[in-house]
Amino acid sequence: MVVATSIPAAALFPDVHAVSPSASGERESQSLEVTAGGFEIVARDGYSATSIEEIERRNAAAAPARTAATFINNPASPIQWPFVTGVPLSDDFGPRAAPCSGCSTFHKGLDLIPGEGTQVQAIADGVVRETGSSDTGLGVYAMIDHVVDGQRYTSVYAHMQFGSLQLEAGRPVTVGQAVGTVGDTGQSTGPHLHLELLRNGSDPIDPFAWLQANVQL
């Protein structure tokens, strides 16, 4: 395993004061299964009816993240995964069959599917380069610049929920800080986080391989 250290954002951005993460114990993950029974809600006395499908959608959005043994996060590491625990993956970095009309045949990132509404966290200290909110492309997204072992990287978090973005361009960010929540905005085929990692701010590399090598366990 390659051990990496994150250079504080202040080393690249003089006005930024980096905050070192404090060591803490492992976080426990809980799960809750919500099952819709064979019932319907009937409108009476001015109350509106709610379909079973809508109830299931709301329950799914409110439920805790789905977990999987895809990776192990360390909340004390200067570099971390975008979620506090391992989550399912739906698409890897590299060549692929385009999953939708207009989608690329080379996937520049990693798709993670912990469930709609799950909090996304910053993978390292840095400074917010750019944010956006759109019905097309990356949807609701944030881009954060980092310096790791003297090398500049940019992490991209895309397709988050409308109204969930917690960052502003030009502001410093610490590892583990909330970025937004998993959504289905922009050019997306379902709720997921599209995570990209750009070396030197523009060259896409495999986020999974890089995080596997750099998150300290």
Automatic annotation (TrEMBL):
GO MF terms listed in the record are: metalloendopeptidase activity
Q: Which Pfam families match?
A: Peptidase_M23 (PF01551)
**For the M23ase beta-sheet core domain, which residue ranges apply?**
106-207
Q: Which InterPro entries match?
A: Cell_wall_metabolism_enzyme, Dup_hybrid_motif, M23ase_b-sheet_dom
What's this protein's name?
Peptidase M23-like protein
